[in-house]
Design a protein that fits this description.
Layout lengths: L7 E5 L10 E6 L8 H8 L3 E3 L4 E5 L5 E5 L2 E7 L2 H20 L16 H6 L14 H9 L17 H13 L9
Antiparallel strand pairs: 1-2, 2-6, 3-4, 4-5, 5-6
Helix pairs in contact: 1-2
The chain binds iron/sulfur cluster.
Iron/sulfur cluster binds next to helix 4.
């Protein structure tokens, strides 16, 4: 098991905006979890992976983030103390499980941060029909890059005439490990 023992777990309200009803937390430990990063990035779809400094950023739904450092895990945006503990247990379990299966996983070094809105836009129907709830395909493309919505939120993409675009868009997103991520 790569990460067995957490030495310290600080939970706090962000100092910059104490009015925010969210909590941040930092767990520290002796183990070096960085060998798991290329595999965690491959399995969970890291938002950004800085290999030089060994930092892997995971973006979850509802504005939550988990940042992995070699000997530290930072959690941002949890709604309460229970969720801080649940998120820590979740990511700890993911790290250990994924690292234990690393022989079966192709490591990934690219991350979602490399996705370009303009490239996503080119693969949308570009009709600005607003069926997705956004005013333009550009706004949809930007939200898709952020992992806030999915391909299914653009109904025209499901039409046969846009099948080639949808398949190309899916492949483009997958190249960068794109996905929406929930801690479940
Ligand atoms: S539903 Fe699709 S085609 Fe229509 S505006 Fe949204 S992204 Fe563009």
């Amino acid at each position: 098991m790569l990460l067995e023992k957490i030495d310290n777990f600080d939970i706090f309200r962000p100092k910059m905006d104490s009015s925010k009803e969210v909590l941040h937390a930092i767990a520290t430990f002796q183990a070096d979890i960085s060998p798991s990063f290329p595999y965690v990035n491959a399995e969970l779809g890291g938002w950004d992976y800085d290999q030089t400094n060994q930092v892997l950023l995971l973006k979850l739904s509802n504005g939550k983030w988990i940042t992995l450092h070699p000997q530290k895990i930072a959690i941002r945006g949890a709604k309460d103390i229970e969720e801080c503990h649940a998120l820590l247990e979740w990511i700890k379990g993911q790290i250990n499980d994924i690292y234990g299966r690393r022989d079966q996983i192709a490591p990934r070094y690219m991350s979602q941060a490399g996705l370009k809105v303009i490239e996503i836009l080119k693969l949308t129907p570009m009709s600005n029909c607003k069926l997705c709830g956004y005013a333009t395909c550009m706004a949809y493309a930007a939200a898709l890059r952020e992992g806030e919505i999915s391909l299914n939120d653009c109904p025209p993409l499901a039409e046969e005439r846009y099948r080639e675009k949808r398949e190309k868009l899916q492949a483009y997103l997958e190249t960068f490990g794109w996905r929406t991520l929930d801690a479940e």
